[in-house]
Amino acid sequence: MSVAIVSKLQSFPLFSEHLAGWGTVLGHVRSKHFSHDDAIISHGDAAGQLCVVLSGWVKLVRLTPDGKETVVGLCARGDVFGEAALFAHASYPYSAHAIGEQTEVALVPASELRAALHNDPELSAHVMALLGERIHNAQLKIEQMSTLSAPQRLGCFLLNLCKTQGGSALEIDMPVEKHIIASYLGMKPETLSRSLQQLGGIGIKAKGPHISIANVQALQEFVCGSCGESGMCRTEEELTDATRA
Amino acid sequence: MSVAIVSKLQSFPLFSEHLAGWGTVLGHVRSKHFSHDDAIISHGDAAGQLCVVLSGWVKLVRLTPDGKETVVGLCARGDVFGEAALFAHASYPYSAHAIGEQTEVALVPASELRAALHNDPELSAHVMALLGERIHNAQLKIEQMSTLSAPQRLGCFLLNLCKTQGGSALEIDMPVEKHIIASYLGMKPETLSRSLQQLGGIGIKAKGPHISIANVQALQEFVCGSCGESGMCRTEEELTDATRA
């Protein structure tokens, strides 16, 4: 694989530590470009590869027997999916599809990955901690579905988009279609539209995919004041630092 | 620790495999009895122990800054909580309280646990797979909160209670108070009561904590027909086997 892809991977939390342990694995990673709606992995297939988003967006979806599609995850640059590849004899519990025409994904072969984990207990502990973080994030999402209102859940999603941009007023673009975000947040598309309107009360204006946030701190107070993760949330912390700067 | 506790632990999935690897750890496990509402671990404390329920029930709870308590987990015999103890420098992301007067919990010290994982890559892979299962279960719960109706979610909870009992008609008792189950299922107590009434249409009758299920298969059809896990769910499989037998 190219040096460029190795250096991209090394900028992500999964690979930035224990580089020696990743050594042989990285030599087997290849990257692939996907067009809009291309299937990257399929629900039920043997988990042969761990996937890391290099650019673009990926949606993780599941289908119910009565035909409802749910978006169970939305992955951006640096996010990992297909973690079933870490476990022997596992199959993917969801399908992954590219969103937009600019999606590039690094594919890490399961066999090399598991061999590296077997040979390096430090690497294994590191990956285990990342799995722990993933459990925690999923549990937090379950909690938020009970404790936060729809506008607050949408507000939390917007805060996460703001995180990397900083400043006390922001212009952002919704990265994917609104019905996908609605499904990911566990609400109907019409609830998402209504929630966006309600956020107008604290200075948030939407025009198509474009969102302007007059006061990030006001949005934070509206969302985080009702969230059980408040005081321990990385997004909250980074935004507070950014708006103070 | 007593031989009785070691043999109890060895009957649970976490410990039933890789017994050699668990050897030294099991020597450091102690068990403790808790009374109703006793705190077993506290949100934010350094994660010093992995906990395994030996008997009774345990609720895992989180508080929001505005004072709402959410039940993020309900653990019965054999269930594990406090998995933050697997990771260095982690703190518990929830508090755990005993339900009822009969709760006994095995406490596995984090330092011995992590040393064993470090020394035994097979054990480490086994624990990682269990973490993977936990991620999957949390993601499934997120999906169900979007795709299943409140009566279907309650139905799924009842099916899990039925699992170990078998037969095509069942009498079960709600193991914990209804408002705790409601919070765990992400619904208001009055929604749970209404959902129980709606399940009357497929032969489910409730009298206080006592539930009679006239036809487990009818309940399965009502719930699993709308669930993305159908065909891959262990509860569904075991119940189908039991009602066929």
Give the SSE layout.
The structure is a homodimer of 245-residue chains.
Chain A: H1 3-9, H2 13-16, H3 19-26, E1 30-34, E2 39-41, E3 49-63, E4 69-75, E5 80-81, E6 95-109, H4 110-119, H5 121-147, H6 150-162, E7 170-173, H7 178-184, H8 189-199, E8 204-207, E9 210-213, H9 216-224, H10 234-244
Helix pairs in contact in A: 3-4, 4-5, 6-8, 6-9, 7-8, 9-10
Order of helices and strands of chain A: HHHEEEEEEHHHEHHEEHH
Contiguous runs where pLDDT drops below 50 for at least 5 residues of chain A: none
Helix content of chain A: 40-55%
User: Could you report the average pLDDT of chain A, rounded to the nearest whole number?
Assistant: 91
Amino-to-carboxy terminus distance of chain A: 40 Å
Number of helices of chain A: 10
Structural class of chain A: alpha+beta
Strand content of chain A: 15-25%
Biggest sheet of chain A, open or closed, and with what strands and sense? 6 strands, antiparallel
Write down the oligomeric state: homodimer
- What is the alpha-carbon Rg of chain A in Å? 19 Å
The strand count of chain A comes to: 9
Shape of chain A: globular
What pair of chains forms the biggest interface?
A-B, 52 and 52 residues
